[in-house]
Design goal:
single chain; four-stranded antiparallel β-sheet; 4 strands; globular
């Protein structure tokens, strides 16, 4: 168990570090609202400052978003006590990604501030898919999305089987 927690801590540090490094790199190398084309009509690297949550919802409500993130982190860490990567891989990996992604964006919300005094999250991956310009996102957002997907897969397909195995 101790080695598993140590490994999970290492993955957490790696993901949060990668998130913060890529955001620092974007802010250092690309002017705000600027960017460049990687694949014409499909993928751009941009420098956006999101003062809201996903898709910019609740823009300007950083205090609320910080509180919600702390509550979510507390819940994820509480649920993590049931983590076991050997027997609950999707559950455990999903939670690890949710904690990592939440922390990555929380760091931004606590320490990045624009000229108007609003805190923000740096977004930089910009995809145009089938004519739709998908909202820009970052490494933490990828962790959150994949974490939700894995956690959902576990709840839909594996939780019931584990319950039956424990009671049958």
């Amino acid at each position: 168990m101790k080695r598993t927690l140590l490994a999970a801590g290492g993955v957490f540090a790696l993901l949060v570090g990668m998130d913060q490094f890529t955001k620092w790199l974007i802010e250092s190398a690309i002017e705000h609202q600027d960017g460049f084309v990687v694949v014409e009509g499909f993928f751009h690297i941009v420098h956006k400052r999101n003062t809201g949550g996903a898709w910019g919802i609740l823009a300007g409500n950083q205090t609320f978003l910080v509180i919600v993130t702390f509550v979510a982190l507390a819940l994820f860490l509480y649920l993590f006590r049931e983590a076991c990567f050997r027997t609950k891989f999707f559950y455990s990996t999903g939670l690890l990604l949710l904690v990592s992604g939440s922390m990555g964006n929380l760091i931004d919300r606590l320490f990045r501030m624009n000229e108007e005094g609003e805190t923000y999250v740096v977004d930089f991956l910009d995809f145009h898919i089938f004519g739709y310009n998908f909202p820009a996102f970052n490494v933490a957002d990828i962790c959150l999305t994949v974490g939700v997907a894995l956690f959902t897969v576990d709840l839909l397909f594996f939780e019931k089987k584990r319950g039956e195995a424990n009671h049958g």
